[in-house]
Amino acid sequence: MRVFRGPRGPRERRADRIPAPVRVLLCCVPGIAAAAALAMCAGGVERASDPHVRAATVPRHTAPRPPVVPRSVWLGGEARTQPAPRYDDEVRAVFVHHTDTPNDYDCADVPAILRGVYTGQTGARDWDDIGYNFVVDRCGTIYEGRAGGIDRPVTGAHTQGFNHRTTGIAALGTFTAGVPVPDALTDAIAALAAWKLGPTDTDPRGTVRLVSSNGLSRYAAGSTATLPAVAGHGEGYQTSCPGEALTARLPHIRDLAARLQGRTG
């Protein structure tokens, strides 16, 4: 907060900034209470006059929440005991992944497949929960992944260095070069990205600045990276995920997500 110095003392300056009715009221407030009230009023005026402080605004570009299958449906009573979820203040970017699992599944079997992914990450890898915030199958069904609340900015465990202020969306399957990518899958990823980025009015076609939390990412710990708002896993971490075929569809996903947010430019 900037403090402006003038020819008068700070106490005189603060008093002059308080409207006359408030000064009259303060005269009726005894001792310490009057001093505290004076400080609160003066601080409020200074903050309001600071051009760097912007009033909260309602995001102009939002999208409706798509249907999401809760983790209780696919995981049931098989959840391991785990720490309480962690949260960020907002979601500024989306990372797209693939699960590197077979593609020739029946969509009716997805809950069982997800339990296998969950067991692999919490068992063999000893993670506290599944790393992805959401998983999308080839039929376009979206599943809640990591625990903490579908509507909340849950801190995931999906990419080194950039789990904060991001959401991890995994496409169920393997999408290396030449593998067909179903439209239902990309449409669902776009709808999910549009909704998650809406509260921060983030354009899915744009870029965001994120701070790397550790040096295992492509960026040194503490450094700021400029990344796509809808990024492939490989943008932040040295990996071929989400595969060449799905990476090639990211421009389409970004454009569709922007249209779902009502962006026309």
Give a structural overview.
With 265 residues, this protein is α/β, with parallel strands linked by helices. The protein has two domains: 10-49; 68-260, Lysozyme-like. The protein has eight helices and eight strands, in the order H-H-H-E-H-E-H-E-E-E-H-E-E-E-H-H. It has helices at 10-17, 20-27, 31-49, 71-75, 110-124, 183-197, 244-247, 250-260, and strands spanning 68-69, 93-98, 134-136, 142-144, 166-171, 207-211, 224-228, 230-232. It has a six-stranded mixed sheet with strand order 1-4-3-5-2-8. The longest helix is centred in the N-terminal third of the chain and has 19 residues, at 31-49. The two termini are 36 Å apart.
Tags for this model:
alpha/beta; 265 residues; 12% strand; two-stranded antiparallel ribbon; 2 domains; 6-stranded mixed beta sheet; disordered N terminus; Lysozyme-like
List the helices and strands and how they pair.
Layout (H helix, E strand, L loop, with lengths): L9 H8 L2 H8 L3 H19 L18 E2 L1 H5 L17 E6 L11 H15 L9 E3 L5 E3 L21 E6 L11 H15 L9 E5 L12 E5 L1 E3 L11 H4 L2 H11 L5
CATH topology of the largest domain: Lysozyme-like
- List the helices and strands in order: HHHEHEHEEEHEEEHH
What is the correct CATH architecture of the largest domain? 3-Layer(aba) Sandwich
So, the CATH homologous superfamily of the largest domain? Peptidoglycan recognition protein-like
Helix content: 25-40%
Mean of all residue-level pLDDT scores: 84
SSE-based structural type: alpha/beta
Shape: globular
Strand order of the largest sheet: 1-4-3-5-2-8
Identify the CATH class of the largest domain.
Alpha Beta
Integer count of domains = 2
